[in-house]
Amino acid sequence: MPRIYATAPRYQLVLISPRFEDHESLRSILRDSPWEMRGTRTGSAGLDMIRRNPGATPVVICEHSIPEGWRHLLAELGRMEARPSLIMCSRLADERLWAEVLNLGAFDLLLGAPFDAEEVLRVTQGAWWAWDRAVGASSVPRIGPGLARGLDKTRAKALTAGSYL
């Protein structure tokens, strides 16, 4: 049976979205997780946040319609030594966007409005593992006890399965 630790380490996740509701939704989902969300409305502000502490941000979630363009953000992240995994989010289930996002090197695409908690946690965990393999970090984020308490046993087990070394 997987263990859930009350003192899990915190990992920085940067959300770049001009939509206030995206920030509220993700902050609520990540509240009891090992993720510490930092939010900004523009790509340039997000890049500044990440550059201030290189290697401290393993995952970036970006709304696909940011003013600077998500492709520019992806290119800038690609120039970083400890390149964060980029997860795009969109309110539309557009297969062409999803294919383009993956083909250009982003980790995955989330559907927003509203975000699905299980999907957010699954995709951010996968993005962290991809970053960890590429960068060589030393520990694994764990799902916080508050999140597991709010789920039925089957859903909590599915979220925590395989989350531990």
What best-fitting shape do the alpha-carbon axes yield? Answer: globular
- Remind me, CATH topology? Rossmann fold
Major beta-sheet overview? 5 strands, parallel
- Total number of beta strands: 5
Strand-residue fraction? 15-25%
Secondary-structure element order, as H and E? Answer: EHEHEHEHEHHH
The CATH architecture is 3-Layer(aba) Sandwich
Overall mean confidence score, pLDDT: 80
CATH class: Alpha Beta
Question: Number of folding domains?
Answer: 1
* Spatial order of the strands forming the largest sheet: 2-1-3-4-5
Helix content: 40-55%
Rg estimate, integer Å: 15 Å
Please report the number of helical segments: 7
Could you name the ranges where pLDDT drops below 50 across 5 or more consecutive residues? 1-7, 140-165
